[in-house]
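Justification of resources, computational component.

The compute hours requested in this renewal are based largely on the per-chain cost of generating structure records like the one below. Each record pairs the submitted sequence with a full structure-token output. That output is archived, and it is also reused by downstream analysis tasks.
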Amino acid sequence: MYTFSLLRKAFFGWLLAVSAAYAQNLVSNPTFDDGIDGWQTSAGAEWMPTFGYEKGSLHLSSRSGTATATQCIVIGSGNTYVATARVDSHCAGARVLSVLWATTEDCSDTADFTHGDFASSVAAFDWELLTVTAASPAGAHFIQIRLFDADTCADDVFFDDVSLQYDDIFYDGFDPHSVD
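The structure output for this chain reads:
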């Protein structure tokens, strides 16, 4: 009886550790509380220390053209991921969270994959949560998270609380398209 109890505790401890590993945010510096380190930024991107969902944020200004911030992250091929980001802007639709795939560690070959997935903002003047769920295609070893402000609105946008996690629902092979 005592051995069974220890074995059960060990199993549940292992299960908790595995679950925590898959719930881990893979994005470096997701909250922008202390700057924009870890992100590759274009012109028009800057850290906004006094405005964010909780503290700081990434400010993208499209007043002088398209502004982006990207991060290239190592992934496992064949997994499904969920990317999220909070966005606040004065113009809906042009603010985008994109997930792109790559084989190179600098994500310079994202154009080699036929598609990426994205979510666009629909609200203005309030924080909105954008969510993208995407399965990595065969051959992809890296994922690029791209925060994007197109120059269609010529206004400012703020991003905060960016995350990328394994999708636990799809991790076990569940496919909603195969359900009858």
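The two ends are 43 Å apart (CA to CA). The mean pLDDT is 82.
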